[in-house]
Amino acid sequence: MISPAPGTSQPTAAQQRWWRIILGLHEVMFALNIASAFGFTILLLTSRGAELFSPENNLAYYCRRGAYRINDLLHVSSRSAVSTNGVARGALSPWNLVGYELVIAATVLSLAIIILALLRCCTGSRTYRTSLSYISCVSALFLFPACFLYVTKGNWDFPQAPNPVGFWRSPILAVFAGEILCSIVLFLIGGKRPISAWTLSILLFLHYAFWTTVLSPRIGGAGIAVSVLFMPYVLVVAFPLSGIAWLLYLKASRVSMTPPRRWSSARTWTLASTSVALLTLALLWSPSLGAHLSPKDFDSLRIELSRGSCFGSCPAYKITVLGNGRVEYIGEQNVRVAGLQTSTISSRQVASILQSLNDTHFLSLDDRAFDWCFDTPSVSVSVSVDGRTKRVVSDADCFGAKSGIQARFVHTAAEIDKIVGSERWVPCNGGPCWRHN
Questions:
Q1: Is residue 327 situated within a structural domain?
Q2: In 3-state terms, what secondary structure has residue 91?
Q3: Which residues pair with 394 in a beta bridge?
Q4: Of the four, 50, 103, 226, 243, which is 20 to 30 A from 3 by CA?
């Protein structure tokens, strides 16, 4: 810590207690600010649409899947996957939002505990002092704005409403760069003579007032019903609070204080809480690849591919592939051939279908976390083998990131069509097309 100036008195016991309170508050807010910025970024990425962000990611799928996992744990009624027989997509009920609230809250809290544990592991060291003095200052001032700008850059030119000005010439980026420049100037001035707490307080107030105003409307426009969630606003509150905690720490550190204790008495608590935090993150965000489809009895294998209708002329049909290679096609609507048709494929082709499904980790997919649009066709794949059945339903056109989990499933469904040769029955090719009356 900062050494006392010559002639200054040693701090009293009351000052030491106050110092420990300020130090603990600063540590907690430092960890919570970093974790909240990460949770804020997750919300922005999942709300704007993964398919519009570059680079593409599966964050929206994992976030929704984690929410449904929490809903299942709490026995909260969750929306089931839409059937391919219907066009309308079911809306989320208010109870579904419980999972969204808790998955972000649990993620942020777990990350904050891990960061705090890492910080306290190096208590008293130079890394510890640097983290609380300099890294905490930079993160308290610029981490939230930097995360916001990162997401904004990836989603700057929306196809629906492209921005007239390029990102690098945007006013919001100019403000961010100007604040960084001013911070460097103040740091250089502060190295020669101290800057008063009132001056820093006024500058921090203007900084946080501006960025809180910028951030809050963006949250209200999020696409996963974030506008009716409470957690996004809680996360933004951690942004200015971390700056206040840093300012209190800076003021208190000017007085001579005893070095912070090494938290030896809290090692058991730290280890236990960190273990719980890591387990929570693993349960919410782990890929859960699951087992592969490896039939013990091929005679029990039954693979069904169904494509549903839309408000236009989308073909609706069902294809069943049995373990012995028999293929059954049933044309339902907007197809060239209606009714039942049969054919066969080789055992190697059946194995190829299974391999394609395993490549998408079919058994671990949760279709409730998939993206959905309103007027688009749907596709489902159902696999029954060895007495077990797994069914996954997806939107056939609106499937998020083109290299994402849902897109790979839709591509696998197309591979099944290709392997069984459904093009001989389905496309109308500009000719007469059978329609259901």
A1: yes
A2: coil
A3: 379
A4: 243
pLDDT at 373: 78
In 302-409, which ranges are E strands? 302-307, 316-322, 326-333, 339-344, 378-385, 388-395
Separation CA 101–CA 234 (nearest Å): 11
- pLDDT band, residue 209 (cuts 50/70/90): very high
SS3 60: helix
Give yes or no for a contact between 84 and 304, defined as CB atoms under 8 angstroms apart: no
Q: Do 236 and 176 share a structural domain?
A: yes
Residue 406 CA: distances (Å) to CA of 11, 127, 217, 283:
61, 43, 30, 20
Q: To which residue do tokens 């919410």 refer?
A: 284
Compute CA distances 340 → 83, 279, 344, whole Å.
21, 50, 14
For 209-264, the DSSP string reads HHHHHHHHHHHHT-SSSGGG-SHHHHHHHHHHHHHHHHHHHHHHTTS--PPPP--G
CA distance 107 to 179: 30
- Does residue 310 sit in the same domain as residue 275? no
Token readout for 427 is: 């496309």
Give the domain-ending residue among 231, 262, 285: 285
Choose one of 239, 256, 285: the last residue of a domain. 285
DSSP secondary structure code for residue 379 in this structure: E
Encode pLDDT of 220-233 as tens digits: 443 334 456 788 88
Domain of residue 52, residue span: 13-285
